[in-house]
Amino acid sequence: MNTVETEYFKNNWKPDYDKFEYSGWKLLQQFRHKDKILDIGCGYNLFKERLGDRLYGIDPAIAEADEIVSWEDYVPKQEFNVYLALGSLNFGTEEEVEAQIKKLADVCKKGDRIYWRQNPGTGDHPWKGVEQVRFYPWTIEKNYEWADKYGFWVRECREDTGNRIYAEWFKGNELEYYAFKVSD
User: Fold this and answer.
1) Which pLDDT score, from 0 to 100, does residue 184 have?
2) Starting at the edge strand that comes first in sequence, how are the strands of the sheet with 82-86 ordered?
3) pLDDT in tens, 105-161
4) What is the three-class DSSP state of 89?
5) Which residues are CB-neighbours of 1 under 8 A, at least 6 positions away?
6) Which residues pair with 84 in a beta bridge?
7) Measured between alpha carbons, how far is 111 from 91 in angstroms, rounded to an integer?
8) Helix (H, G, I), strand (E, B) or coil at 164
9) pLDDT tens across 48-72, in order?
């Protein structure tokens, strides 16, 4: 994320988890009590109140994060098994976004899960400065391509409210996912 985008999110953007069918508050139903969750680009860290110390939020712009840092500069200090990318890993060129995905793949272990909310490249936020934000044009097809390339299985990928894409990625394959679910 460049400086213009960081300033936009710091000064203009506002969260609204209520409007998303899959990637808003309903997402809390996906988490188990033993999950350790990293919220990449957590914004105002809204899930923190409900998940407490099980969640660690990073964000390059907003002070409510547990750590003010970009994903590119973040160095994990603990292990996580769930990752949230709810509107983050969403900015820049294809090469920049793919580099972020590669870092995520390198950090994830077999059995880890990622929950996504992706913008399909539309600058449809209602706040001043949105026209300068470089939204990456995510597609459902791109989810399958990158997941396969980096060792993930896409458990679910569909349209969410507000012209967004909701996706769930699992580090491993479909058989490993179901074995993981049974052992859970």
Assistant:
1) 66
2) 67-68, 55-59, 37-40, 82-86, 113-118, 164-171, 152-160
3) 999 999 999 999 999 988 777 778 878 888 999 999 999 999 999 999 999 999 998
4) coil
5) 9, 60, 61, 70, 91, 92
6) 39, 115
7) 27
8) strand
9) 999 999 999 999 999 999 999 999 9
| The two three-digit tokens of residue 152, written as one number | 């993930």
**Environment class of residue 15 by beta-carbon count within 10 Å: exposed (0-12), middle (13-18) or buried (19+)?**
middle
Helix (H, G, I), strand (E, B) or coil at 132: helix
Q: Say what the pTM is.
A: 0.93
At 171 the three-state DSSP class reads strand
CA distance 140 to 165: 7
Burial 62-78 (b: 16+ CB within 10 A, else e): beebbeeebbeeeeeee
Sign, CA dihedral 180-40-69-151, equals positive
Rounded distance between C-alpha atoms, residue 64 and residue 48, angstroms:
10
Name the β-bridge partners of 160.
164
Q: Residue 2 in contact with residue 20, Cβ under 8 Å?
A: no
Q: Report the C-alpha gap between 9 and 59 in whole angstroms.
A: 10
CA distance 67 to 51: 16
Q: How far apart are CA 1 and CA 112, in angstroms?
A: 25
DSSP per position, 20-51: -TTTSGGGGGG--TT--EEEET-TTTTTHHHH
